[in-house]
Amino acid sequence: MKAQDLLNQYAAREWNFQEANLASVSLSKVNLSRADLSKADLSRADLSQADLSGTSFHCANLTNADLTGADLTGANLTEANFIGTDLTGANLRGADLSGADMRCANLHGANLTGANLTDAELSGADLSGACLKNATLAGACLVGADLIGVDLSGTELPEEQLNGEINPTGISHNWVSWNGSC
């Protein structure tokens, strides 16, 4: 699907884009709030500074996508693939990232206040300067993640999660096709 086709359909109040092939599309600064992009392929897509609040990306492929400065407030990002994705400065306040694969993602300065990161794979991710106030991190793997300057106020983070005792291999059970490295 081409970017303009998607935008035309969205403008006509058609919000279901499940399983759409949007690899490498440029959707910078667009408004796709509350759209359903479940299981869509958005690998290498440019969604920088886009309004994606309340959007569903359940099981979507966002490998190496650009989401810098994007608004993902309250978005459903469950079991999505964010491997190598740039989320620098993104607003993920209240987003559901449970089961998401975020290996080597750049979340520098991202707002993850109240986000659900249950069972998320964050090994090798850059979380430096991110805000994780009141976030849920139960079962999340943070092995090798950069946590310098992270605000974890109100967040329970057992020591074993930092040491890799919960998921010491850092291997995703959902996505096995990524060929990159951290």
Task: Walk me through what this model shows.
- This protein is low in regular secondary structure.
- The protein has one domain: 3 Solenoid (Pectate Lyase C-like), CATH 2.160.20.
- It has two helices and no strands.
- The protein has helices at residues 3-11, 159-163.
- Mean pLDDT is 89; it is low at 164-182.
Provide the CATH architecture. 3 Solenoid
Biggest sheet architecture: none
Helix content: under 10%
CATH class: Mainly Beta
Portion of residues in beta strands equals: under 5%
Q: What is the string of helix and strand elements?
A: HH
| Tally of domains | 1
Cα end-to-end separation = 30 Å
List the helices and strands and how they pair.
Layout lengths: L2 H9 L147 H5 L19
Pfam families: Pentapeptide
InterPro entries: 5peptide_repeat, Pentapeptide-BTB/POZ_domain
Organism: Allocoleopsis franciscana PCC 7113
Key features?
182 residues; little secondary structure; Pectate Lyase C-like; 0% strand; Putative low-complexity protein; 5peptide_repeat; Pentapeptide-BTB/POZ_domain
